């Protein structure tokens, strides 16, 4: 089974790119973040035509939003408000048929603004609180689970183009890395990106619109696929599809794909 995740930065704006990706890479399931569309306006027709007949959409107008589309039957499992303000940032599903019983969690963690200080930047505090709520949730997980999405944190020194330069930049600050580490420890999550592409190998998933085209390769690994320990043993491959970042008017994120022998 191939499971993919992609912060698409507007699914309607980049619907042709999503179709191209699905056609070329043939995943069984795709988790999208930042779909930026309310549920009743989600572009169902293309997904239906390509066989993704099972869909869980948690959207809102203009911002955020997540969607899980699948060729494999599932039932929607949960919608957690880890942001604690009603924003559409999570949807969980339970697979039926192939992979029955697997829980797939699709999350879009807040970016956190520009200043790494919750006293002067409430968005940064919201991000840390979001992660703490996720950590309390993860501590109680008792099912094989895969959590994927845009975590908006690059945890390792090799997950950014310049570790020292970014230590005070939101997404790579020590407090974010420590907070994400507590979330990882709460369930013993296995980071598939680094299981298959060990540090310090290059493994970026995001490049700023401002710097990428200068060919400086100023990337960060903000997108992740983390598995329960037993599920991680069934993982067979993992990759990032960097070519999408070179398409016309691309998302600033690229897709990740993990393959499992379930």
- What is the topology, as strand order, of the major beta sheet? 3-4-2-1-14-13
User: For the record, what is the CATH homologous superfamily label?
Assistant: Endonuclease/exonuclease/phosphatase
The end-to-end span amounts to 7 Å
Number of domains: 1
- Please compute the radius of gyration using only Cα atoms: 17 Å
Name the CATH architecture: 4-Layer Sandwich
Mind explaining what this structure looks like?
The protein is α+β, with helices and mostly antiparallel strands and 262 residues long. It has one domain (2-260): 4-Layer Sandwich (Deoxyribonuclease I, Chain A). 22% of the residues lie in helices and 25% in strands. Strands 3-4-2-1-14-13 form a 6-stranded mixed β-sheet. α3 links the parallel β7 (103-108) and β8.
Summarize the structure in short.
With 262 residues, this protein is α+β, with helices and mostly antiparallel strands. Helix content is 22%, strand content 25%. The strands form 3 sheets. The protein has a 6-stranded mixed sheet with strand order 3-4-2-1-14-13.
Write the layout of secondary structure elements.
Layout: E1 2-7, H1 15-25, E2 29-33, H2 44-49, E3 54-58, E4 66-70, E5 74-78, E6 90-95, E7 103-108, H3 122-138, E8 145-150, H4 174-187, E9 190-191, H5 192-196, E10 206-207, E11 219-220, E12 223-227, H6 229-232, E13 235-240, E14 256-260
Parallel strand pairs: 1-2, 7-8
Antiparallel strand pairs: 1-14, 2-4, 3-4, 5-6, 6-7, 8-12, 9-12, 10-11, 13-14
Helix pairs in contact: 3-4
